[in-house]
Design goal:
15 strands, binds adenosine-5'-triphosphate, hydrolase, 17% strand, 18 helices, alpha/beta, 496 residues, Rossmann fold
Length: 496
Amino acid sequence: MSLSAHRPGSGAIHSLVELVRRTLNFDPLVIVNSGLIVIGLITSLRSAGNVLYHYAEKTCLSTVHVRAEDPLYEDIVRWMNDHAFRRHNFLSVLAQTTNSSDNDKALTRSPLGQLESDNLVSYREVDDNSFIELKPFHGSRFFRFKRTWMLFSHAASSPDSSTRPPQVDSNPPLKLQCISLSLSPIKKFLEEVRAYGRKVCVSSITVYRTRPDSRDLVRWSSVASRPSRDISTVILDKQKKQTILRDINEYLHPHTRQWYANHGIPYRRGYLFSGPPGTGKTSLASAIAGVFGLDIYVLSLLDPSMTESHFIRLFSEVPTRCVVLLEDVDAAGLNRGEVRPSGDGTQPHSAKTPSSNTAVSLSGLLNAIDGVASHEGRILIMTTNVPQNLDRALIRPGRVDIHIRFELPSHEELRDLFLSIYSDVYQNAVVPIGDKKRETGRLHDLAVRFAGCLPERRFSIADVQGYLLRYKRQPEEACGNVRSWVEDMEYGELSS
Ligand SMILES: Nc1ncnc2c1ncn2[C@@H]1O[C@H](COP(=O)(O)OP(=O)(O)OP(=O)(O)O)[C@@H](O)[C@H]1O
């Protein structure tokens, strides 16, 4: 019995090889063998390259990693797109639809902008005008910065990135490398990148919110970079506005930081904005961020994915200078009833009660605000609709230094709102200067009449703004119909 194995199909291969040899007059095995040698060579060169790269990385390559949630990340991507990637021709890129505000400006200049609001317009064509950006997204690129060659690497987040597109929602970290025994070339590069980012975004603020990443870890993520809100558009008693602006201005001054250090006081400042919904608490926080050129980090205790340890970590991750907006602190269930004084009576503890809809306890919140991990230099703004429900420990000086009470608007504030909404109605009209003055005077009279038709301290600014938005360009109609709106609102309240 023969022991030689006879593999099925080997006879067919043999006959095929014979056929090719006879008809084409050359041996196909030579090509197959050469191909195998080339593949082997490439594989060994690649693994030799990898070994060399890892060796160089340990000995003479300086490397910096930047996490996706760090503000530097956006700055680097922006800089790379505007400088290093401009001259390259990439074949694999990320396509991104950008709805820039410039586009909207262009729209108002176009014939569409002239149309009366009664005409119906299909926006399919208009949307097509939003421009498409093609951005290099992942991969490694060499670029030159001040005579130093650097390597920018941006891995795709999915493991088999060759077959699946990169997951844009969970950006992996960036890596910057250069041949140097010190980190200073990359440091200089990062400084340049940050300065560039500041120059480009001088009149806009970036809003960061929390978002769970692919591993369910809650992280900061920039949700919008938008033009900052002009503080003059926030309607609030002049004195209150001045008080908070002056206080923050003084706090941010470098001398003040030194003063705090000299006196051994933690360099922190907290503000509480309280008042009914829709009275401008969030609007003022975002306008303050704009005035002082700070980014804004918004935290909500009601975020279902927020745990106490996430909350404390997120607090410690904000940059030194920024506005941290902690919204609706009352809704966290952190009221007096839930607080148990500790043994020494100094540090209160709160238990999570069944009514509490957050995983963050009062002691966790206090810990985040002024624990060792909490950054000095940031501005904390807490907002609440029911300040009387807040625990004393949360609002004691050092945690809340200034309390701004927002109220439902007075006649004067309603008049200011009307003027602010219609300020540009006559400005764009082509009329002689004398007529313009007359129109402005008329607008002022209308504003006074409008405010007089509304009861004081009855509706929120958000309510009244909602009504005025029905008449964006018709101040007369807004004024004429306001009484019936008030009746509807009051009747609605009575019947509900
Ligand atoms: N004082 C105000 N000045 C200018 N606009 C205001 C003011 N109050 C409210 N608005 C407008 O009403 C809307 C809601 O305002 P905002 O979110 O600032 O209110 P809020 O007090 O933070 O409300 P909430 O307590 O519900 O969070 C926004 O569109 C804002 O422009």
